[in-house]
Write a structure and sequence with these properties.
Oligomer: single chain
Helix content: 55-70%
Radius of gyration: 31 Å
Distance between the termini: 103 Å
Order of helices and strands: HHEHHHEHEHHHEHHHHHHHH
Largest sheet: 2 strands, antiparallel
């Protein structure tokens, strides 16, 4: 049985120039000798200045975790000139102290643009694909436009693929920017996509803020009052799937009124539902008045103290009636 020999360190390194007592003789070539002498001199200087040879690995570990967001291990190894196994051990927290030279090499690496083969978190991408399907874009059409397989798009939407390659992520981001403001043409595939999204509780694009859609802790704002009893009734009035936050808020609302008689509770429900319905209609009317005076979505939303997403949804759910119809209703 033969034992595989370990690869010798490269020429021009301290390990090759210093050797390993009992295992490997020092290399006497000029590059190795210079590297060995330079390392020993630096060690003597560090001792005289009171610099420890080993430093805390926490800063390097945090920097490696930051680099991993956009870089592969191969890129980090090439930039830092460190071994991959050693870097992985540092990033995993298996080393509490590392050599000062290793620390300096790691900290000198600057983040690069994501490599095409780098895997990135799919949370924001999943929400974007679900939002596009909520406005009628089928998985088949999205896959064709993104240059991917329909089965992969469906797996991402279903949350079965937690990470996505950077090259596909860029295509999905571009696709969302192009289609998020354009509902799919009417047809069977659009109807099926919308029904599938409703059954799974997927939020449309207007329910997401571009600044928070990638945040795993963010929640869609389907009504502008999600998390409250008013949001619950706005779900019901607009025949939207009730989100878990509004379901819980309504349960708490009922618990607070458990002492009421059935008749009194029904009266409270009627008032709460009526208030939610009139509030959104009034909001849409006031927003249109402001926009006629020159305000845009952002300015109108700020003036009315609501989010832009809520304002857009209110305008969609309460379309403006034709002037002729308004006149006829006023005359009647």
């Amino acid at each position: 049985m033969t034992t595989a020999t370990k690869t010798l360190p490269a020429h021009g390194t301290y390990a090759r120039g210093n050797g390993a007592p009992g295992y490997r003789k020092p290399c006497k070539c000029v590059p190795c000798y210079k590297a060995m002498r330079r390392a020993r001199k630096q060690y003597a200087v560090n001792r005289q200045l009171g610099r420890p040879g080993l430093v805390d690995a926490a800063p390097a570990r945090q920097h490696l975790q930051l680099l991993q967001l956009t870089m592969t291990w191969g890129q980090i190894c090439e930039a830092s000139e460190c071994q991959a196994d050693n870097l992985r051990s540092i990033a995993a927290g298996r080393h509490t102290q590392i050599r000062r030279e290793t620390h300096n090499r790691i900290m000198a690496v600057k983040a690069q643009a994501p490599a095409p083969g780098k895997y990135v978190d799919a949370t924001g991408l999943r929400r974007r694909l679900q939002a596009l399907r909520a406005i009628g874009w089928s998985a088949q059409i999205l896959a064709a436009k993104a240059g991917s397989a329909e089965a992969r798009i469906q797996r991402i939407c279903a949350g079965e693929q937690p990470t996505v390659r950077q090259v596909l992520a860029e295509k999905i981001l571009k696709l969302y920017a192009e289609l998020s403001q354009t509902p799919a043409p009417a047809g069977r595939s659009a109807t099926r996509a919308k029904n599938h999204a409703i059954a799974n509780g997927w939020a449309p694009p207007v329910a997401w803020d571009d600044d928070t859609i990638d945040d795993p802790a963010a929640q869609p704002e389907l009504t502008g009052h999600c998390g409250s009893d008013r949001g619950y009734w706005m779900h019901r009035n607009q025949k939207l799937p009730v989100c878990p936050r509004c379901e819980q808020a309504h349960t708490d609302w009922l618990t607070e009124r458990a002492h009421l008689t059935p008749q009194q509770l029904n009266q409270e429900r009627f008032r709460a539902r009526a208030a939610a319905a009139s509030r959104e209609a009034d909001l849409a009317h006031d927003a249109r008045e402001l926009m006629r005076l020159g305000a845009d979505y952002e300015q109108a939303a700020a003036r009315l103290d609501v989010t832009r997403q809520h304002l857009q949804q209110a305008l969609l759910r309460h379309p403006e009636t034709a002037p002729q119809q308004d006149d006829m209703e006023a005359a009647a």
